[in-house]
Design a protein that fits this description.
13-stranded antiparallel beta sheet; 2 domains; Immunoglobulin-like; 2 helices; 4-stranded antiparallel beta sheet; mainly beta
Length: about 300
């Protein structure tokens, strides 16, 4: 795997940071947050949880942390990543693009624009309104307060959201329009803190129960056979990408039993046309994890 990352700049970009998050925004696999949701001054009090459950690769060639959110409104997933400059981006599946959620390499008064609710047609801006230190879960932490506002022509009555982010923990408070969401407890990088009622024990580490064995021939100019093994029955997806991160061909998406499996790629894209000569990457995905290998195709 390390050798492959050195060979492929695109996948190096994708995985080198490993999307573990930043000082104020941890995003380790299995990180978990439990919140108390207070609406209308305590008239309605409910629970909300968030958990990082894996990675997802989108057509823009970037990988995002998949975060599962459970609230009184049901279960939904959001997709976020943190870049090397400590900017937090969220992928908007409705518009097939990402937007800037937070800037965390910041100073007091810094501000930036963002699409309101992820909708490019509505705009707002966020600003750092406080930076300091305070005690959270019996320890002293640094925190940053960010307030987001709509621009005057976005929503006539205006809309304001307040966030407080704490180092090594993440979002501890979110407030908007009569709703306060306060962190009660968390599990960050396997360290438990605060009061958690919905998780009785430390979540198990996610394991990748599959491996590529080989592809042959490689390089190839007609057909190559891809061989992989599954430790247990699972839903799998095998895809081919170019070095820009664009998917060239979905080779298989199905439920398969454990054991050794093979499939063939004839160097053609989704439309049935031969691809250009050069290096490609094929990936095997299951259980929110991905394994990748390099392959060379030469057109006759």
């Amino acid at each position: 795997m390390k050798r492959l990352l050195l060979l492929l700049p695109f996948f190096c970009n994708l995985f080198a940071q490993d999307m573990q998050g930043s000082f104020y925004y941890p995003l380790n696999t299995n990180d978990f947050w439990e919140y108390r949701r207070n609406e209308n001054n305590g008239v309605l009090i409910t629970q909300e949880t968030r958990k990082v459950i894996g990675d997802t690769l989108f057509p823009n060639g970037r990988a995002y942390r998949r975060i599962e959110k459970k609230s009184p409104f049901g279960l939904r997933q959001v997709f976020q990543r943190v870049d090397s400059a400590d900017n937090v981006y969220q992928f908007n599946t409705s518009h097939s693009d990402e937007f800037l959620l937070f800037k965390l390499n910041i100073s007091f008064g810094d501000a930036w624009n963002f699409p309101l609710f992820g909708n490019p047609s509505d705009s707002g801006f966020s600003q750092v309104t406080q930076i300091g230190e305070a005690v959270f879960f019996s320890k002293s932490h640094k925190f940053v307060k960010i307030e987001s506002f709509t621009l005057p022509d976005s929503i006539p009555l205006g809309f304001r959201t307040e966030y407080i982010l704490v180092d090594s923990i993440g979002v501890v408070f979110e407030g908007f329009e009569g709703v306060d969401i306060e962190l009660q407890g968390a599990i960050i990088d396997s360290v438990r803190m605060g009061n958690i009622t919905s998780v009785k024990h430390k979540p198990p580490e996610a394991k990748f129960e599959a491996n590529f064995l080989q592809s042959y021939p490689n390089p190839f100019n007609s057909t190559t056979t891809i061989v992989y093994t599954l430790a247990q029955a699972s839903e799998i997806r095998v895809e081919v990408f170019n070095l820009n991160g664009q998917r060239v061909k979905l080779l298989k998406q199905d439920f398969e039993n454990s054991g050794i499996h093979t499939l063939k790629w004839k160097g053609r894209n989704e439309s049935g046309f031969l691809v250009a000569s050069g290096p490609y990457v094929y990936s095997l995905s299951l259980k929110n994890k991905m394994s990748v290998q390099k392959i060379l195709f030469f057109l006759k």
